[in-house]
Amino acid sequence: MQKKVQSDGFMVLAINPGATSTKFAVYRGETVLLKQAMEHSVQELKPFAQIIDQHRYRLALILQALDQAGIDRRQLSAVVGRGGLLKPLLGGTYRVNAQMAADMQLAALGQHASNLGAVMADDLAAELGIPAFIVDPVSVDEYEPVARVSGLADLERVSLSHALNMKAVARKAAKDHGRRYDEVNLIAAHLGSGVSVSVHRRGRMVDTSSSRDEGAFSPDRCGSLSGFSLVDLCFSGKYTYQEMRQKMMGTGGLFSYFGTRDVREVEKLAQSGNQKAALVLEALPYQVAKDIGAMAAVLAGQVDWIVLTGGMAYSHRIIDDVIRRVEFIAPVVVLPGEEELESLAFGVLRVLQGEEEAREYL
Ligand SMILES: Nc1ncnc2c1ncn2[C@@H]1O[C@H](COP(=O)(O)OP(=O)(O)OP(=O)(O)O)[C@@H](O)[C@H]1O
Ligand SMILES: CCCC(=O)O
C-alpha cells in the first residue's frame, strides 16, 4: 500500500462513532480542515438490529459531508477510527487488519458504538487503497497482575475504559507542565455519558474503573451496585438478560432516575426545587471523588496531577464538588470535552511520519 503524502502534509480522516453521534474530522498535518458532529436520533437508528450494522449508513453520511465541504477523499493518506471492544492490548496505534475487522463484526466482547470505528475506517481505506488504523481503543489493558484479581475465582477484573481521551488528556497535562507522559503519575477521570477513572503510572494505565461495570455511576450507566441486590434483581423474573445488560449500560445512572442522559436537564430540575435531582447530582461527584481517592491509593499518594475531562467537566455543579473533595491529593487540571478526534489523527500522523511503529493486532 502506497503512502499518499500531499506537498503540505499527510491528510487523515478521523472517525469517532458514539452511541448517538458520529464525530469526524479531516486533518492535513496537524491542521484541521473540517470537523463535524452528526447526531443520530433513536428513530433513525431503529432499523439496525445490531450497532455494527450501522457502519455503511454512518460512513455514507460522512462521505456526503466531505463532498459538501469540497474535500476530495482520494487525497486522503489514511483513515483512523475509534477502537472498540477488542482483545486486551497495550496502548498505541494499531493497523486495522482482517482479524480486528472480524472481531468487531462478531462483537464477541460486547456491542459498543466504538466497534464501528475500525470497520468504517477499513471500508473506506479499502476503497481508496490506503491504510486504516485505530488508536488507544477502549480495551487498552496495561494492568499489573494485582489489578486483575476480582475477589471471586470465577471472574477477573477487565480493563475497558475511555482510554483514548484519558491518555490524550494525561499526555496534554504532562506536556503543559513541561513533562513527558512517561515520567509522571496521574489520575485521569473521563466524565461523559460513561465515567472512567484511571491511574497512569509513568506512561502506563495500570488500573481503571468504568461505569459500565464498576465505580461511579454516570448519565446512563450504573457503575458498582450492591452484589446481592443485583443478583436478586437478575433472578427476580422482572427483566430478561438483555434488559439487565441494558440497565448496566444505556438506561442506568441518571437516565434510570430522570429519563434523561443530559446533566443540564437534571440540573434544571434541581434548580427548580426537585430534591431527588439535587441528591442524585450530589451523589455523582461524590462517587467520582471516591474512585479518585481509591486510585490515589494505587499510586501510594504519589500523584502529580488529577485530570478531569469529558462533557460533564463543563458542569460547575459537578466539577467543583469533585475538586473540593480531591484537591487534598494533588493539583487538579480540568480539560472539559474531549480530544478524541485530534488524538486519533495525531496517533496516525506519528506513524505516517515514522516517529512511531504501528502495532499489529493478533
Ligand atoms: N455544558 C455542559 N454542562 C453540563 N453538562 C454537560 C455540558 N455539556 C455536556 N454535558 C453533559 O456531558 C454528558 C456527555 O458527555 P460527552 O459528550 O463527553 O459524552 P459522550 O461522548 O456522549 O459519551 P462518552 O464520553 O461516554 O463516550 C451529558 O450528560 C451532557 O449532558
Ligand atoms: C466500554 C468502556 C467505555 C465506556 O464506558 O463507554
UniProtKB/TrEMBL annotation:
The record, for SUPFAM superfamilies, names:
Actin-like ATPase domain
Please tell me whether the keyword Transmembrane helix is annotated for this protein.
Answer: no
Any one GO CC term of the record: cytoplasm
Provide the protein's localization: Cytoplasm
Query: HAMAP family annotated for this entry?
Result: Butyrate_kinase
Family, according to the entry, reads as follows: Belongs to the acetokinase family.
Q: What is this protein called?
A: Probable butyrate kinase
| Gene responsible for this protein | buk
